[in-house]
Predict the 3D structure of the following.
Amino acid sequence: MTLEHSIEPAAKTLLNADALLITAGAGMGVDSGLPDFRGNQGFWKAYPPIAKLGLHFSQMSTPKWFHQNPKLAWAFSGHRLNLYRKAIPHNGFLQLLETAKSKKGGYFVFTSNIDGQFQKAGYDEDKIVECHGSIHYLQCIRPCTDDIWEAAGIEVNVDEQAFEALEPLPQCQNCGLIARPNVLMFGDWAWNDDRTEKQEKKLLNWLDKVEKAGFNLAIIEIGAGTAVPTVRIYSEVIADKDNSTLIRINPRDIDVPNGHISIPLGGAEGINRILKIVNFS
């Protein structure tokens, strides 16, 4: 199927939808200038000091560094926090939001991204599931309690040459130990998933209402790769369960189950090409 022959049915699917589930991986933020760390070379290009250490993304993104070398851990997390705070969501976020808000059954977002870009783009906080947590929230490294608190107002300054976070490092507001982002890392048994669980319950309630109302649900997935396939699997499970059409926008990992739609483009371009047809229909 040619690209045009994929975009037209995708536009028709969105036009006919009563409700919209937006699922997104790291590729959604690439057009906002955010790295997706695909492969070690991309990761090392973004973080040359870590390349010198020979650490891969999966090795760096573990909770052990907050115990063994908190200045290194917070150099990595602090740099990303600052990067995400400065990033401006690309126009695809805004275009998709306008379409989502027009649906009588509403919308929901399910994302593995920890960057908070959907909230920054104006999506309703109560309609977002961050399945791997958010870097804009903190927890204790132990953890001493189940508390999760916002990182707003906390500044992390990083010595780029030494690649160390400068004192003072973020601390637990209860016990005074080092704090860490409320983000699911590799080999992470201390992640507090309370916030994400509450988000997931809201999503399940919404899906239940959509089903009971007999609304036609469409799923649009952007930039979700196969390396950590959480979002892709979720999209396919919901599509199968609700007999919904899945639109997968991805420039590389283009395979979709039979009967669904693949758009081999980047996030911003894919959304724009589809919605250009939707808005003129």
